[in-house]
UniProtKB/TrEMBL annotation:
It holds the Pfam family GerE. Keywords: DNA-binding, Transcription, Transcription regulation. The keyword Ribosomal protein does not apply. CDD domains: LuxR_C_like (cd06170). It comes from Amedibacterium intestinale. InterPro entries: Sig_transdc_resp-reg_C-effctor, Tscrpt_reg_LuxR_C, WH-like_DNA-bd_sf. GO terms for molecular function: DNA binding. This is Spore germination protein GerE. The keyword Transcription regulation applies. GO terms for biological process: regulation of DNA-templated transcription. Residues 1-65 form the HTH luxR-type domain. SMART domains: HTH_LUXR.
């Protein structure tokens, strides 16, 4: 288990919205950023975690208690 937080506040916001089933476009609109920026945040997190997809990233973030289901 990771001992330090790996998500920036913006990355956490993006992934929190992802697990609430918002699309990339909806997240961008909600956060007032571009679709590309949302995809960049997602890609950066996947690189940090060494995973190949959003679903794997979510599983790892939940496992490491970076995100919580409500």
């Amino acid at each position: 288990m990771l001992t330090q937080k790996i998500l920036t506040p913006r990355e956490k916001q993006v992934f929190s919205l992802l697990i609430e089933n918002y699309s990339t476009k909806e997240i961008a609109e909600k956060m007032h950023i571009s679709d590309k920026t949302v995809r960049n945040h997602i890609s950066n997190v996947m690189l940090k975690l060494g995973v190949k997809g959003r679903a794997q990233a979510v599983v790892e973030l939940l496992r490491n208690e970076e995100l919580h289901l409500q």
